[in-house]
Amino acid sequence: MNQTRRSLLLGAAASIIAAPGFAQSFGSRSMRIVVPFSAAGPTDFIARLFVQQFAEEIGMPVIVENRPGASGNLGTQHVIDSDPDGMTLVHTTAAMQSINPMMYPSARFHPSRDLVPVALTAAMPNVLVVHPNSGVKTIDDLVRKGKQPGAQLTFATFGPGSSPHVYASILRKATGISAIAVPYKGSGNAINDVLAGNIDFIFDSMTTAASHVRSGKLLGLAITSNERSALLPNVPTLKETKYGELDLKFWFTLQVHAKTPKDMIERLRTASAKAVKNKTYIDGLLSRGAEPFYVEPSQLSAFVEKDTQRWTAAAQSIGIKPE
C-alpha cells in the first residue's frame, strides 16, 4: 500500500459499540486527516500516533493522507475545498497557522478565517546543536564566536519561516551575532552538513537531533522547551540561559473547515481530547522527542489565536517576507 496514503483501521468493531454516533451518522465512510507535508516528518508521525487512539474514540476508520507542497498550502487548500461535514481534517503546525499567511499573501485561504481548531496534538522542541570540534561548548561561546571581528557564522534552515529559521534569526537579532541562513529542503540534508562541519549551527527538531547528541556526534547547547527533556537531560533549556526570549512553543494542531456544523466540531473536540490524553499516545510522543500539549476544548480557539499572534510577531521581527 502507498506509504503516503495508508489507512489505519483500528479498533473498529469494539469502538463502534462504545461510540456509535459517528458511525450511525456517516455509515461506512472513513474519516480523513490530511497531513500537508511529506511522510515520516514530525507532522506526519504525530498524526499517525494520534489516529490510533482517535479511531477508537470515534468508532470508525481514519485515513492519514499526505498532500505536501507549497509549505503546506496545497494540502490545507484541499481540506478547505472539501465538504464542510467534519469528515476531512488537516493536521498542521504553528508555522502554517502564523507564518504562511505572511509568506503567501495571495493564497486562497487564511487559516484563522477558514479553519477552526479541534485539538492541539503535541509540541516539538528544537535543539540548538553544533559540531563537537567547533570549539563551542555553550550558547555563550557561540555568541562570542559570532561577534568576533570578521566572523560570519552559518546556520541551517528548512527554508524561510521554518522553525530552525525563526529560532536562529531571533537569536541573531537578540545577540547581534554575524550569521547567515543556509536553506535546505529538509532536516536530513541540513543535519548532514552540520555533522560534516560545513555549517556552524542549527536549531533542529528533537526527533532528528537527539540521537546525534546522545552519540556524541553533535553537541547540544540548548533546548526550546520549558523543561529539560528526558532524552537529553544534560542539555539546558533556553530559560536556563539568558536567551529566554526565544521561548516559542512549536505546536501541532488538528483543524477542520470553519463551516463545519458546531455540533460536529464539539464531537470531534471531545473525541480528540480523550485521544491526546491516552497514556499510550503520550508515551509514543515522548519516545520520539515530542511533548504532550493539552489545551481544554473550551480554550482551544483563544489559545490558537493568541499564540498565532506571538509567532506572527516573531516572524515580523526577523523580516519574513512573501515568497
Automatic annotation (TrEMBL):
Belongs to the UPF0065 (bug) family. PANTHER family: BLR1237 PROTEIN, TRICARBOXYLATE-BINDING PROTEIN. InterPro entries: BUG, Bug_dom1. It comes from the Bacteria. This is Tripartite tricarboxylate transporter substrate binding protein. CDD domains: PBP2_Bug_TTT (cd07012).
